[in-house]
Amino acid sequence: MRTLVNLTVLNKTTSLKNLHTFGIEVSAQEVIELQSQEQALNFFKNEGKQFQHALILGGGSNVLFTENLQVPLIRNSIKGIGIIDESEEEVIVGFGGGENWHECVKYAIAHQWGGIENLSLIPGTMGAAPMQNIGAYGVELEQVFEYLEAIDRMSGDLVRFYHADCQFGYRWSIFKGNLKDKYFISQVALRLKKAPHQLNTSYGDIRTILNKTEQEATIESVSEAVIEIRQSKLPDPREIGNAGSFFKNPYIPQSHFTDLKKEFTKIPGYPLEGSDQVKVPAGWLIDHLGWKGYRKGDAGVHQKQALVLVNYGDATGKEILDLAIEIQQSVKEAFNIHIEPEVNIYHG
After folding, report:
1. Whole-number average pLDDT of the chain
2. Which pLDDT tens digit goes with each residue over 224-246?
3. Which of 164, 175, 229, 319 has the most neighbouring CB atoms within 10 Å?
4. Distance from C-alpha of 199 to C-alpha of 211, rounded to nearest angstrom
5. Per-residue pLDDT tens for 3-38?
């Protein structure tokens, strides 16, 4: 081991198997853990240029490693939750970039702050949430996003990014585009509503569960419904390695969708308001081609959700990736649609 700006750095081959939800057996030569904004600022101010190629990892819930890392790994472990500002109707809450996302949702619900209950049980950390613009069941992070603070990895300067700066899109932000790998997100501030607030129960399964249990729609009951839906469809990474939805839902021109509808009469599509684009569920495309439940060695497609690729135990990252490519090719051949991975793939 060696010491680096008051940090203990593992200077030997370190297994990453327990640091990402796919559970692939890969290693890194160095792992550096940053536990406070002050520590991170000091690190990047003094060592940023030396570690400009290092990989930053949060909860490891949206990554696939296909081979051992040849670069250092930096873990975002910055914790802390606190009120930044509030009024009678709203509260702006700051969350450390290393906080577990679902624990932050639970914290908000416990304080009767609404806005992220539909995003319950999404794996990962707070720092990764705006990068991906996470979304589920009718809600996206950008709807509650106030700002984030991030450290320039080269200069060590602390920069604040507001909503417009982030260029949010569908599972997208500028941190996956022009600013990819250039900043370390240390804090995220969300604008949440004090109860009572308008709940989003537009997603059919949420309303079905609330009706079945005869529950009133509250922050708690909506969260519980979302958790029930997710647990019924998605495998627990603690039991079987996976990174949630592997592919994004594609958008195609209305004319293309109309042509597909003639051949595949049951294909679902959701028009994007204000454009000629239609969102097609990638899970339906994959399921229709018979991939659900497919297994080759220890790499497979989950039995209940065709969007989820799984590691049944000892699959390699390359085996998972090869399966993903096979699925992409079959969807392209059948529907002339390219489905893009939602998961970040690292090749060492």
Report:
1. 93
2. 999 999 999 889 998 999 999 99
3. 175
4. 15
5. 454 554 544 568 899 999 999 999 998 899 999 999
Tell me how far apart the alpha carbons of residues 108 and 82 are, in angstroms, rounded to a whole number: 11
Asked if residue 272 has pLDDT above 80, the reply is yes
Question: Domains in the chain, ordered, with CATH?
Answer: 2-76 (3.30.43.10), 81-233 (3.30.465.10), 241-346 (3.90.78.10)
Q: What would the DSSP string read from start to end of 191-240?
A: EEEESS------SHHHHHHHHHHT----HHHHHHHHHHHHHHHS--TTTS
Q: Say which amino acid occupies 325.
A: I
According to the model, what pLDDT value does residue 258 have?
Answer: 97
Q: Which residue has the tokens 């319950």?
A: 120
**What is the arrangement of strands in the sheet containing 55-57, beginning at the earlier edge strand?**
31-34, 73-76, 55-57
Q: So which residues are the catalytic ones?
A: 171, 245, 342
Q: Is residue 330 a contact partner of residue 338, using CB atoms and an 8 Å limit?
A: no
What b/e readout covers 51-89, taking b as 16+ CB neighbours within 10 angstroms? beebbbbbbbbbbbbbeebeebbbbbbbeeeeeeeeeee
Q: Which of 21, 43, 47 is nearest to 33 (CA)?
A: 43
Instruction: Point out which residues pair with 169 in neighbouring strands.
Output: 172
For residues 34 and 40, the answer to whether their CB atoms sit within 8 Å is: yes
Question: Could you give the CA distance from residue 255 to residue 195 in angstroms, rounded to a whole number?
Answer: 44
Structure tokens at 265: 């009469």
pLDDT at 6: 52
Number of H helices, E strands in the chain: 9, 24
Which tens digits make up the pLDDT trace of 180-197? 999 999 999 999 999 777
The answer to whether 344 and 64 have CB atoms below 8 angstroms apart is yes
The amino acid that residue 223 corresponds to is S
